[in-house]
Amino acid sequence: MKSVDAHLAEILATVRPIDPVGIGLDSALGAVLAEDVRSPVALPPFDNSAMDGYAVRAGDVAAATEADPVVLPVTVDVAAGDTAPRAVGPGHVTRIMTGAPVPAGADAVVPVEWTDGGTDRVAIRRPARVGNAIRRSGEDVRAGDVVLGAGTTIGPAQLGILAGVGRHAVLARSRPRVVVLSTGAELVEPGSPLGPGQIWESNSFTLVAAVRQAGGEATRRRAVGDDPAEFLETLEGLLGAADAVITSGGISMGAYEPVKEALSPLETVRFEKIAMQPGMPQGFGVLGERQVPIFTLPGNPVSSYVSFVLFVKPALAKMRGLPDGPPATVTAALTAGARSPAGRRSFLRGVLDAKGSVTPVHRQGSHQLAALAGANALIVVPEDVTELPEGATVEVIPL
Ligand SMILES: Nc1nc2c(c(=O)[nH]1)N[C@H]1C(S)=C(S)[C@@H](COP(=O)(O)OP(=O)(O)OC[C@H]3O[C@@H](n4cnc5c(N)ncnc54)[C@H](O)[C@@H]3O)O[C@H]1N2
Ligand code: MOO
Which CATH superfamily hosts domain 48-135? Predict the structure, then answer.
C-alpha cells in the first residue's frame, strides 16, 4: 500500500498555483496577493487632528488651569475634508474636528472636553503638550513602503489597507473554484423523504463547507447515481468552470463503482489503496485540457472528510499560492488507550481540550457521522503502532 506521505507528495507535485489576475477589491476577500503592494503616499497623508477640539500653539495654553483658564479668540472652524489653507497665529486658536488638517502654526490640539466649548472665544482649562492629539503624516505608512507582501491572504483588514493606499484592484490568485459532486444511487437530498434502502446525502455539505473554510469557492452538485456514463457526462459539463473537482463515493471494490469505472479508462486518474484508516481507497489525477485536478474521495462520510483534511486542503493551499504540506499537528496526552490496525496510519476522532489532553470518541466507524461531529481533532497513530496506552503522547490534527 502507498503511504499517506507519498500520496500527498504526488498530489502536491501535480497541482499548480492558480494564475494571478487583476481582481477588484469587491471580489478580493480570500484571494492571495501575487504582488507586493506599496503605498504611493504617506499615511496619514497630512498631519491631522485625532480629536474634536481646538488647534492651538502649545505655548499659548501652557499656563491654563481649572481655576484660571486661558481664554483665547477662535478664528475659524476646520472640518475634516477642509481644503482651504488655515493657520493659527500667536494668541489665536481654531476649532478643529477629528481628521481635519492641522492648521499651519498650530502644534497641539486641545480636546473640547478640556474647554468650555466656546465658538467665538474659548476658555481652555488644561495645558497641552506639543503634538497632543495630532496624528502625524507618515506615522502609519511612509510613501513607498510595502504595506502587504506577495503571498498575503486578503482578509477584512487587508482590504482596508489596500483601499487605504488607493488601490481598487490587485494582482492576486483568486479562491480556487471547486465543484463537489457525490455519487450513489442510495442518496437522497435532505428535505426529501427517505425510501427503503436510502440515506440522506451528507458528504457534499461537509466537503463544500470544508472547501470554503480552506479558502476555496465551492459549488455543490446534486448527487448522481451509479451510472458511469451519467457521472462522466456530469463531470464533463462542469469542468470548464472548475479549478478542481472533488467527488465522493464509487471508488472501492463493489460491482457499482461509477467514479472508478468512468475514470479508470482515461488513465489520468489513479485509484489506489493508501495505508491509512479511515480513507484507504483514494483516487487522484487530472482531467481535460486544463489538467483540472480531481480528488475522488471514498464515500464513507468520515473517510471523505479525513481525506479532505489530509490531501485536498494542502492542495488547495498550493493552488492559492500559500505554503503547503501536511496538516499542522500539536502534541497532546491521550486520556484513554487507543488501538490502530498494523501497517496503517490511523486518524482517530478525538476531543482535544485546552489543557492539551485528547480523548478518543467512543464510535470510530467511518460511517459514524455523529461521532465525527462531536470531535474536534484527529489523533494520529503511526503505521507501526497498534496500541497506545492511556497517557501516551500523540500528535493531533486540530479540525
Ligand atoms: N470489499 C471491499 N469493500 C470495501 C473496501 C475494500 O477495500 N474492499 N473498502 C471499504 C472502505 S475502507 C471504504 S472507505 C468504502 C469506500 O467506498 P466507496 O468510495 O466506493 O463509497 P460508496 O461505496 O459509494 O459508499 C460507501 C458508504 O458511504 C455512504 N455514502 C457514500 N456517499 C455518501 C454521501 N454523499 N453522503 C452520505 N453517505 C454516503 C454509502 O451509502 C456507503 O455506506 O468502501 C468499503 N468497502
Ligand atoms: O478506509 Mo474506509 O475509509 O475505512 O472507511
Answer: Molybdopterin biosynthesis moea protein, domain 3. (2.170.190.11)
